[in-house]
Amino acid sequence: MPLKYFLFLHDSHGFLQGARGFAGEIGHIPWHGSQNASWGKCFCGRYDCLETYLSPETVLKFAAHELGIVQPGLPELYAAATPYQMQKIYEYLISFIKFACVVAANIFDPEMLILGGKVIEPWIKRFEKELLPELRRTTWHNSPKKLKCYSMQNCSSAYGSALKAAAEAVTAIVGSYTE
Ligand SMILES: [Zn+2]
């Protein structure tokens, strides 16, 4: 039977609208509600947005400050990190990703949650295996039934372009919004 209710989370922007076009911005929920400047500022101008912790720049900062490994980009970091360092990065990421997924699952009650983005690419299979039971234990009435993690390399180019266009459109709206 085809899925009727699924939720797509990417380290970019969503497709819900809301009154001003900003609905579903789970990435801008403040982590612990504080205004902590330690990991830098979100593009929206606030500190401590969930997506700030999950951005490639912050993963690079985490690796530099906490693990002593300095690299210019994520591919270089993931190639150079030892298994121990990769485990620490995974542990760092999963706490934030789990929180985002629990919020999303409790709000939208999807049958399947689809998760992607370059920060999680080295652990796609592991996230599918370890995150799903964690989510089902934590969410309201054990949602979702399925979790699918995807790699950008496995997306069609049309799909990738649509994601990029949506991100650019929302960024333009946020940039022009002055009220
Ligand atoms: Zn933000």
Describe this structure in words.
By secondary structure, the protein is mainly alpha-helical. It has one domain (6-176): ATPase, nucleotide binding domain (Nucleotidyltransferase, domain 5, 2-Layer Sandwich). 47% of the residues lie in helices and 8% in strands. It is built from six helices and three strands. The longest helix is centred in the middle third of the chain and has 26 residues, at 83-108. The radius of gyration is 16 Å and the shape is globular. The N and C termini lie far apart (45 Å). The model has no long low-confidence stretch (mean pLDDT 81).
Q: Helix and strand layout, with pairings?
A:
Blueprint: E1 6-10, H1 50-53, H2 56-67, H3 74-80, H4 83-108, E2 112-116, H5 124-138, E3 146-150, H6 157-176
Helix pairs in contact: 2-4, 4-5
The structure holds zinc ion (ZN).
The site of zinc ion has 5 residues, from loops.
Task: Kindly list the characteristics that best describe this protein.
6 helices; Nucleotidyltransferase, domain 5; binds zinc ion; mainly alpha; 179 residues; 8% strand
